[in-house]
Amino acid sequence: MLHDVTLQRGSTTRKDDAAMKSRVFSTLRALQHENPLGLPRSGAPPQIPRMQRGLPQKRSIKDVNKVVAVSSAKGGVGKSTIAVNLALSFARRGLRAGILDTDIFGPSIPTLLNLSGEPRLSPNNQLLPLSNYGIKSMSMGYLVGEDSPIVWRGLMVMKALQQLLHEVDWGGLDVLVLDLPPGTGDVQLTITQQVVVDGAVVVSTPQDIALKDAIKGVHMFRKTAVPLLGVVENMAAFHCPHCHVETPIFASTSASASAQSSSDDVATAHAHSLHARFEALGVPLLGRIPLHPRICADADRGKPSVVAEPAESPNVVAFEAVARGVAERIGLKW
């Protein structure tokens, strides 16, 4: 598919005669390894910083005041949902907020923000973010078809990541949320070693299998000297709308065993167990997001809970409590 695109340069408007210069990404032509996003070039492309006597020098993201990374070493724990609601919570407080989807292979932000279409280019050939609900966003998902896979080796992924990090015209942000892919691999290492990140938020669900990977994520940020802001427990418990009893659907095995050997119920034992495990690592608990079908439904229809539900709803209150904790830790006015 090829869109009819116009370029704005000063007071002149013209259609690009080749219809390719303004097209950021196209499956109709071969990709260059030095420029996987296909941005127009007038000079040499930016290079991945080389190792010189240790770690590469960290760079700030242009026109961005604070950068917060949202991570989970385990996939499927709701990290992207947390990240987008975090950015939206910042925006509700009057902050200029944005979100960058750094998951090259499985981008979720376009769906969560109900956005599609290719970004336009600025006069200096940088990507212009797409906006909805008061926040700016950029994602690999805007550059390819919804059902088109990215089948790239590591070098292409790293080049594309460099372009997403440093060739987007954010136009001035108070805070940029980075939605990291699952794991502790190349993308995470590149970001933590080459970008000035003001703090990281680790997301986990209650199960032991997720907690073990979340702890690996904590150690990754420690090794790369990125400040740990705290952990968010997602899908923490189901609140019955009828009897108002809290049930931890995904309670960890250790919490269940603790409840059986004490007078605590499973919910209490579970909360104490998770908090204790991260407290032992010196990582505070930023908040607990309930397991609620509406959060999932809001995400699927492209209108996240922070903008879809009333401000006093328990889901919104939980998300904003996390955002407030993050803001206080990185010096943003709340």
TrEMBL record:
Q: Can you name a GO cellular component term? A: mitochondrion
Q: Which UniProt keywords apply?
A: ATP-binding, Iron, Iron-sulfur, Metal-binding, Nucleotide-binding
Q: Which residues cross the membrane?
A: none
Q: Does the keyword Cytoplasm apply?
A: no
Q: Name one Pfam family in it.
A: ParA
Note whether Secreted occurs among the keywords: no
InterPro entries from the UniProt entry: Mrp-like_CS, Mrp/NBP35_ATP-bd, NUBPL-like, P-loop_NTPase, YlxH/NBP35
Which BP terms from GO are recorded?
Answer: iron-sulfur cluster assembly; mitochondrial respiratory chain complex I assembly
Q: Which SUPFAM superfamilies match?
A: P-loop containing nucleoside triphosphate hydrolases
- Enumerate the PROSITE patterns for this protein: MRP
A Gene Ontology molecular function term for this protein is:
metal ion binding
HAMAP family assigned to the protein according to its UniProt record, in alphabetical order: Mrp_NBP35
Q: Which family does it belong to?
A: Belongs to the Mrp/NBP35 ATP-binding proteins family.
**Name under which the protein is recorded:** Atp-binding protein
Q: Which organism is it from?
A: Diplodia corticola
